[in-house]
Write a structure and sequence with these properties.
This protein is mainly beta. It contains three helices and twelve strands. It has a five-stranded antiparallel beta sheet with strand order 1-6-11-8-9, with no helix packed on it. A five-stranded antiparallel beta sheet has the order 3-4-12-7-10. Bound molecules: calcium ion. Calcium ion (CA) binds next to β4 and β12.
């Protein structure tokens, strides 16, 4: 019974969350992949020869690695020169209420080689640029970090959040890597769509268990009449035996020598 109620509540919670999509799916890439996101490239851009992967990386610089989306953007090899800003990124749709929306994201660039451009990061909302950061030249074996942030009012409905990264150079094995993590939406536009907390269902009153009548204590069994202690069997005290007849004194010297002596 309890299990069935719990399942119903969970289904209700997730059902509401899934239908409203109030907030980004997999905003911190903790699924280990790009679930919830759709990738794209610019006309002559690439996201990297190895594709986009999710790897542990300290994108926000707090000393702790967290799963982050990793790109290696640039102009796709083989496309005609001169190079333009090329690359790509990812986006997803989100349903919002009317109100204020704040978007933020942690970004970083890293290279073991050094490069003229770590990447231009752009944050777009419904296709419009709302914030950007250009890492520019990046030194040998260095990690550069920044964050994107924008806050504005939105109307109720479905909107698109997009991150675009680009560089003016060809992408190759020695190109710098771009990282994105903790894409976050907050504000009243998100809060208003958050599912109402569902109160715990009141469990039906549990009838008090019938208390079985306490059985009357059984009358104590009458104490058995105590038999008189059996008399100790009388042990006949043996009469002291009467003294025997006094021993007759044997006259000394009853032998032949004595008789001879008395005769002398
Ligand atoms: Ca993460």
């Amino acid at each position: 019974m309890r299990t069935r109620i719990l399942v119903t509540v969970l289904a209700a919670v997730f059902g509401v969350a899934a239908s409203a999509q109030a907030g980004l799916i997999n905003a911190g890439f903790e699924t280990g992949d790009l679930s919830g996101w759709t990738t794209f490239t610019t006309a002559d851009g690439t996201l990297g020869g190895a594709g986009v992967v999710v790897v542990p990386f300290d994108t926000d610089g707090d000393g702790v690695a967290s799963k982050s989306a990793r790109f290696r953007v640039g102009k796709r090899p083989g496309t005609p020169t001169p190079p333009a800003l090329e690359g790509g990124g990812m986006y997803q749709s989100v349903t919002l209420g009317a109100g204020t929306l704040a978007i933020s994201a942690d970004i970083a660039a890293w290279t073991p080689w050094g490069n003229l451009d770590g990447g231009l990061f752009e944050l777009l909302f419904d296709g419009g640029l709302v914030d950007s950061h250009d890492f520019g030249p990046i030194a040998l074996e260095s990690i550069e970090r920044a964050s994107l942030f924008a806050s504005f009012d939105v109307t109720a409905g479905t909107h698109e959040v997009r991150l675009r990264m680009s560089r003016p150079w060809f992408e190759g094995d020695m190109s710098p890597l771009q990282f994105v993590d903790a894409v976050s939406l907050s504000g009243s536009a998100v809060d208003d769509l958050s599912p109402e907390p569902i109160p715990e269902p009141t469990p039906p009153p549990v009838p008090a268990p019938e208390v079985p009548p306490v059985p009357e204590p059984l009358p104590e069994p009458p104490a058995p009449e105590s038999d008189p202690l059996p008399l100790e069997p009388s042990v006949p005290v043996p009469e002291p035996s009467p003294p025997g007849p006094a021993p007759v004194a044997t006259p000394r010297g009853s032998g032949p020598r004595a008789r001879a002596a008395r005769r002398a």
